[in-house]
Amino acid sequence: MDEGQPQVSGREAAFGDASPERDDAMSGELMADRVASRLRALPQIQRLLEQPEAVRLARASSRAAVAAAFRTVLDRVRAELRLGDVETPTVADLVDRAEALITADRLPGLRRVINATGVIIHTNLGRAPLAAEAVAAAGAAHGYCNLEFDLESGVRGARAQAVEPLLCELTGAQAALVVNNAAAAVLLGLTALAGGGEVIVSRGELVEIGGGFRIPDVIAQGGARLVEVGTTNKTRIEDYAAAVTPQTRVLLKVHQSNYRIIGFTEETSLAELAELAHARGLILMHDLGGGALIDLQAEGRPHEPTVSQCLRGGADIVAFSGDKLMGGPQAGLLVGAETALSPLRRHPLMRALRLDKMSLAALEATLRLYRDPETAIRRIPTLRMLGQGASALQARARRLAQLLEATADVDVEASQGYAGGGALPEQRLASWAVALSHPELSPDALAAQLRAGRPGVVGRVNGGRLILDMLTVADEEVIELAAAVRAALI
Ligand SMILES: *Cc1c(COP(=O)(O)O)cnc(C)c1O
């Protein structure tokens, strides 16, 4: 607040120690005068449109667009002036603000970013980056395609005719079904199989995955009743057995995804659950979250149970995401026994949850890559990133640091990334990073500048510096990343 200027804010007046009413009234009047004169000092739109910079902007877009931008800017400025405390901006300021508005408006809302967070499956950044094969397939399906048409016979065909057999082939399942995402898969499964009945879940698995997906709520939404068994840290097969009633329909096992209970714990195995389920005529459904199709450990990557291991373990249905570890587009995949899946296929919700043609095409192309695990590891970005060697990551960090040396203070250092997407939450992945600092910019300001660039760069702020983690940056992106950082700092 300006020196000597009376306080006007109601809150400050109320809490101020000495603000007699008469003073308040006077200060209110004084302030109103000041605001009015500041508002009067604002230029007319006509004058703004005559500025050389505005004329140039109008040539690049249109006079109407520039006039609309000035109107928006003036509305905002008037609102700011009425709040007090700010001076009338200069004409040059107003032109700058209009230009920023026009530029921002030309950019698409959803745009590419470089992920330098070190979190491979980052839900906020679009989860799995797609393989080139998947991108090409989605592009090819954008026009007319044989989505529900059998080209051989010339009659109507099944929507996921190409994808479901591939899923069966890759997981050893008898049947498969594809929906919009794993949340939809679990909702559909519980609704079709357990609506009106009971679902038994361990208290250690009543998790919230994020974005409001909570297992108890999904069960309720499916019209089923949740029966909790065991304790947070220990649930035994006897707990499940004692809870089975004539109303029980499903035993649900849920991957804990984004958290772990460690220490004094006990979890019931799929095999034990399968034995109980099948002896009592129940269905064992496993919400696996980010399902892996190949054994990542065998490839020197961290261990996650594979979808086929879960099926062999006795699950009747396994539900998992297409865009987590698997590295495909957003999709919910259900595999298992035909008798368990057919009520889902026929359920009215199926139509509401079905996948669109471009995602189906990208999914099929991604699954095809898995026919040869070596190809999958080379071509699917999530798998490739999980298996990077320390020396390659370090070399990438050094290269970036060299390109940035003249622009900022840089350090190359060891770092730790994550798989993300609910997979392996406690397991850190060894990585290398470039730590940036700048004499005039705080790390948060630096981060904001980089986010606003084209492409936007998302890193993480740590220890007073901005960390750019190389785990999630491709070799092909290093030069572009360096250019984006330089542009942001100039
Ligand atoms: C991520 C996850 C889901 C939700 O998957 P979406 O594909 O995001 O809908 C459901 N269950 C588990 C265990 C998960 O990890």
Top keywords for this entry?
490 residues; Aspartate Aminotransferase, domain 1; Aspartate Aminotransferase, domain 2; 21 helices; disordered N terminus; binds pyridoxal-5'-phosphate
CATH class of the largest domain: Alpha Beta
The first-to-last residue Cα distance is: 32 Å
Tell me about the largest β-sheet: 7 strands, mixed
Query: If you average the pLDDT, what whole number results?
Result: 90
What is the CATH topology descriptor of the largest domain?
Aspartate Aminotransferase, domain 2
Number of strands: 18
Strand order of the largest sheet: 5-13-12-11-10-6-9
Residue stretches low in confidence (pLDDT < 50, at least 5 long) are: 1-22
> For the CA atoms, what is the radius of gyration?
29 Å
Bound molecules: pyridoxal-5'-phosphate
Question: Which shape, going by the Cα principal axes?
Answer: globular
Number of helices: 21
CATH architecture of the largest domain: 3-Layer(aba) Sandwich
How much of the sequence is in beta strands?
15-25%
Number of domains: 3
The percentage helix is 40-55%
CATH level-four homologous superfamily name of the largest domain: Type I PLP-dependent aspartate aminotransferase-like (Major domain)
**Structural class of the helices, strands and pairings?**
alpha/beta
